[in-house]
Amino acid sequence: MDKSGEAYWKATLGLLTKILVVWFVVSFGAGILFADMLNGIHLGGYPLGFWFAHQGSMYIFVALIFIYAKKMGDIDRKFDVHED
Amino acid sequence: MDLQTTIYLVVGASFALYIGIAFWARAGSTSEFYVAGGGVGPRLNGMATAADWMSAASFISMAGLISNMGYGGGLFLMGWTGGYVLLALLLAPYLRKFGKFTVPQFIGDRYYSKTASTVAVVCLLTASITYVIGQMTGVGVAFSRFLGVSSETGIYVGMGIVFVYAVLGGMKGITYTQVAQYVVLIFAYTIPAIFISMSLTGNPIPQLGLGSNLVGQDISLLQKLDTIVVELGFGQYTTTTAGSTLNMFVYTLSLMIGTAGLPHVIMRFFTVPTVAAARSSAGWALVFIAILYTTAPAVAGMAKYNLLSTVNTAVATNGDLYAAESSLEVAKKPDWMARWEKTGLLKFEDKNGDGRIQYYNDKTKDQVVIDKATAAGWKGNELTVNADIIVLANPEIALLPNWVIALVAAGGLAAALSTAAGLLLAISSAISHDLVKGVFNPNISEKGELMAGKVAMAVSIVVAGYLGLNPPGFAAGTVALAFGIAASSLFPAIMMGIFSKKMNKEGAIAGMLAGLSITLFYVFAHKGIFFIKGTDFLPLIGGPNPFFGITPEAFGAVGALVNFIVAFVVDKFTKEPPEHIQHLVESVRTPRGSKAVDGAHA
How confident is the model over B134-152, as a mean pLDDT? Predict the structure, then answer.
């Protein structure tokens, strides 16, 4: 892989890491490990930890994929490896 | 019009629609048969993926499971949706760039080895066949419950319908029927939920209703639910975990990895025109899935409340749950209870002979509850409710009109049929493309391969139907096994194929075999060798859940970890992959130069 290829892959991995950190924090963090703690806070009638496990993490997953698709498109164009 | 006629009409109309689509979307080439011609837009593919993914289990059983488990049920919600993040980030776009018809073909080409692709075919077939049995029995169950025919007749009709559109249309026919099936199932799922949310909380959006106050009361639905279930000796609804926190963590992770590694889902991303479309299509798939998956916990909580308040009249009036007159009189039980009692999904036994139904947790260790129950003359729980009822009887519990009940019947069938079709395509393409063309007869003509694909599909349908009719006694364990296999064998092999340039065939094959064997070993120890009763060998491994209390359903993530470790260790001591494979990985990583998906073997 040439220089720009390596830089492209590094940028890609950087983006993936950031998104996977959020993915982990909302589901395994807020939804499971820290759920008890967060349940002290309420979101309407929802205890917050319960909300992350039964609602919130799913909304955030959807947002994450679209953010990924958008940012990845930007990286493709920056390194001139996009399609067409 | 009576209920039975309405159900026949609605279900019949939905079947006519699927068959109509089948004739319109016939497949004339292998490209149309395997990948619907490769020109499906990201949104449409997302919708088809959602139907492909959401099975009879998601539609019929999941809300009931959550209803019973409470907070811990969230592992299904997070696990089965979080996997799409992994799929979108780690697999789908790269496999689309690779541009071949099947998952085993990627593994075979990337690891320059027929052995590797054959191991992948075996993993794929085991995962998909165990999964499809569940769908076929699901079709039978939905038929027998709603249409009053035997479950066998139901499976034959289901086989016939799938036969028409899957054999004629391959991926093309399946894609467009799945879109139609998604529309049917999502209306069937959300409409009753909206009505129920409206009547309980005054908020028509179930996702908000679950977090709202009960109509006419100054207390939120969840808080009230917590108070009642605890008073009746059950675990608190919003905090009870599934086993230990560690088990819930690992279980969720296993479902996520398994979801991302299931071949019938991955294949759907070969039908989109570009790499960029594969990325956004995963997002759309999750949007369409989340519409059902965020409704499910609302259905679960509300149905639980409805059930409790039906059986115990003091729930709604804030009276004494243990007062004699609070328990529902048998003579006054609603029609839906009588109706579902006949199916055996709802059982009632008047243990203390007082002519009333007591519903509580008689196995509780809470001394206060035990004392209250004894004082009230309760002699054990008298009502058993199968988890499936929560969705199936929902419209009746909420007193909704007949057409809604009919729609739920059509929705359950749509969910089972769409998933069955997707799995059957994964099975038949592995046979016709990876085995017939890849191994036995590489010179087969395009026309010959298309014919082989259709024959493989027809045979797969017959086999799946046969197994659905004669389930090998392990129907309940099958889905767990499919996820375990996908997580422990396919996901790591594909991921390392993309993210590690140096991973070689020895490492990948050893990893797949190690991950697969340890997962099968752990599952079989609990459930019997190939689920044959009496062949379990728990004492040998030190009793149930010996590995840090992790249940066999949750073991896939451990299998995946073993796969990764073994692969990297073996890789260290064997030759690195040839130059051209490292170039192949580089080209898979960049979108530029993506082309239409084809079947040529390297």
Answer: 79
Distance of CA B57 to the CA centre of its chain: 5
End-to-end CA distance of chain A: 21
Q: Which tens digits make up the pLDDT trace of A22-46?
A: 999 999 999 999 999 999 999 988 9
Report the distance separating Cα B68 and Cα B33, nearest Å.
Answer: 42
Q: How far apart are CA B196 and CA B214, in angstroms?
A: 12
pLDDT over 60 at B328, yes or no: yes
Nearest to B56 by CA among B479, B492, B582: B479
Rounded (10°) angle between helices B491-499 and B245-261: 70
Q: Where is pLDDT greater, at B140 or B119?
A: B119
Determine which of A9, A10, A41, A62 to mutate to test the interface with B (most B C-beta atoms within 10 Å): A62
User: Residue ranges of the domains in chain A?
Assistant: 3-78
Q: Is B364 exposed, middle or buried (0-12, 13-18, 19+ CB in 10 A)?
A: middle
Q: Which of A26, A39, A50 to mutate to test the interface with B (most CBs of B within 10 A)?
A: A50
Domain layout of chain B by residue ranges: 3-304+397-472, 312-389
Contact B348, B383 (CB under 8 A): yes
Chain A residues touching residue B227 (CB < 8 angstroms): none
Separation between Cα atoms, residue B179 and residue B76, nearest integer Å: 24
Tell me the Ramachandran region of residue B593: left when phi exceeds 0, alpha when psi lies from -120 to 50, beta otherwise. left
Q: What is the pLDDT of residue B445?
A: 87
- pLDDT at residue B27 greater than cutoff 60: yes
> B341 or B514: which carries more pLDDT confidence?
B514
Do B137 and B417 contact (CB within 8 A), yes or no? no
Contact A39 B210 (CB under 8 A): no
Query: Would you call A24 an interface residue with chain B, using a CB distance cutoff of 8 Å?
Result: no
Query: How far apart (Å, rounded) are the C-alpha atoms in residues B15 and B236?
Result: 43
CATH topology of domain B3-304+397-472: Sodium/glucose cotransporter (1.20.1730)
pLDDT in tens, B569-582: 999 999 999 999 99
- pLDDT for the residue numbered B111: 95
